[in-house]
Amino acid sequence: MSELRWDPILEEWVVIATHRQDRTYRPPQDFCPLCPTRDPAFPTEVPAASYEIVVFENKFPSFKRVPDVPAVPGTEFQPTAPSQGICEVVLYTDDHHATFADLPVERIVHLVDVWIDRYEELGAVDYVKYVLIFENKGDAVGVTLHHPHGQVYAFPFIPPRAAKELSSSARYMRSRGSCIFCDLLRDELADGRRIVAENALFVAFIPFFARYPYEVHVMPRQHLTCLPELDPSQRVAFAEILKAVTTGYDKLFGFSFPYVMIIHQAPTDGEGHGHYHFHVEFYPPHRTADKIKHLAGCESGAGTFINDTLPEHTAAQIREAVKQLIAEECTSDCALHMRSCQGTGGEPDIRRS
Description:
Layout: E1 2-7, E2 12-17, E3 54-57, E4 80-82, E5 86-91, H1 105-123, E6 130-137, E7 149-155, H2 160-176, H3 180-191, E8 195-198, E9 202-205, E10 216-220, H4 232-253, E11 259-264, E12 279-283, E13 286-288, E14 291-292, H5 297-302, H6 311-329
Antiparallel strand pairs: 1-2, 1-4, 3-5, 5-7, 6-7, 6-11, 8-9, 9-10, 10-12, 11-12, 13-14
Helix pairs in contact: 1-4, 4-6
């Protein structure tokens, strides 16, 4: 059963999806439902001996193309609605033991193409108002299937976090005549201390107001509202900066770093959203190598985050990790090289030779 229930106090929808209690939870190590089918007698979700990237609809979706009738009738004060939408799984590779950081740049570019395809196709469905592309990685964020994959949720409404960003950016554009994200990026570049990595087209940084100790935002220098606006060169630069951030995370403490990665982009509701600026946000749960930042009373109950670290310090840590990684991997004919950034003391610039 899946339905929407309205919270009149916070003025937002809550999804009730009871069937998800039965979703696959940490299957045996010798059988992964996301790996290629090795034995026809024991088929997986992919009926092929190998694959590159695969997209299929989630068997335990939060939203359904043909939604259920709400189990409990709502009221005028607390209405219910059918949970109509689409949920997809995106498999990055057939290598069960790989991670996003292990993917070659060329594969990530291909993945960006797939994300664009899903955004456009799902966004064209009449009842879809927002396409959310994301990845949950690692036990610490509750992942139960460790094969490298992400997800796509096609929402029948604009989710609260996106709605708040849209509202603030629209208000800022009306009052200042400029994009709030462009101005934020300009501010971060001018300061320089929180820059993690950059190339000619994208910048990765820990924001001044970071909620998580190692939270990283990736933003295009050009004002773009959504993934389909990326031209071929921007898609490559985007893949390179995502590779730099994820490998830098792994280098930071010497283990595969868990995170939630969210792609923020304009809704698909048919309205004009020229004031918005596409970007990616990473929320890693670690605050040290062996300590997790749990969301407790102040964060969960009040909605106010408390960051136990200084963004300028954590940015320097990741920046150094990325710098060391590139130095280790680069040779005289390497495709990546370093550039010293003014005002930041030698931060990495990831770009094609």
